[in-house]
Amino acid sequence: AQKVTQAQTEISVVEKEDVTLDCVYETRDTTYYLFWYKQPPSGELVFLIRRNSFDEQNEISGRYSWNFQKSTSSFNFTITASQVVDSAVYFCALSVKTSGTYKYIFGTGTRLKVLA
Amino acid sequence: GAVVSQHPSWVICKSGTSVKIECRSLDFQATTMFWYRQFPKQSLMLMATSNEGSKATYEQGVEKDKFLINHASLTLSTLTVTSAHPEDSSFYICSARGGTGAYNEQFFGPGTRLTVL
């Protein structure tokens, strides 16, 4: 089965707290790509990061960091010193080939609320 | 980054009418475009995949005669909701991708909110 699970439906934090959004995936492929997107209240999904299955290095971009662990099939996302503008729904996605085309399998999303 | 536009951003129509939504990749050529539907507080549900110049591939359960997709050029795809009914009210999102590999990310449009009265 190919699947993405984001077990946290909604998280609320106070501004400046750190928060980690979990993503667990299942795939039969040995080569695959994982993505994170942010969907702010405006509705437009914004690409945050791509990670391939051969690169387990953690990545940091400003206040954002990602921890990819193949051993646990997880690709978690941490926001350090959260800000109100981080409030959004965050989706984790797995790129899978179906009927000859790579498509996304999305998780159900985690709604993050950062309170001032 | 790559920009994808959608028009209109919102539309209200009467039951029984047809509505066309346009999706354009503004600064790149999209070999593949995708159409999604999103219900409130839910994830994105893929409706169909379209490649330029060929027929769209619909996901199971999506009525191809109701949701007509045309991908006439490398920068434009349209979704027409035919004979719309209140249950078709939803947030429709398109995305576009410039390559065909697993590593090619999709760039999303801002979405179109359809309300059918």
Structure description:
The complex is a heterodimer of chains A (116) and B (117). Chain A is mainly beta. Helix content of chain A is 0%, strand content 57%. Chain A contains no helices and 12 strands. In chain A, a hairpin with a 2-residue loop joins strand 10 and strand 11. By secondary structure, chain B is mainly β. In chain B, strand 5 and strand 6 form a beta hairpin. Chain B is globular, with a radius of gyration of 13 Å. The N and C termini of chain B lie far apart (37 Å). The chains are: A mainly beta (116), B mainly beta (117). Chains A and B meet through strand 5, strand 6, strand 10 and strand 11 of A and strand 5, strand 9 and strand 10 of B.
Quickly list its features:
heterodimer, A: 116 residues, mainly beta, six-stranded mixed β-sheet, four-stranded antiparallel β-sheet, 0% helix, 57% strand, globular, B: 117 residues, seven-stranded mixed β-sheet
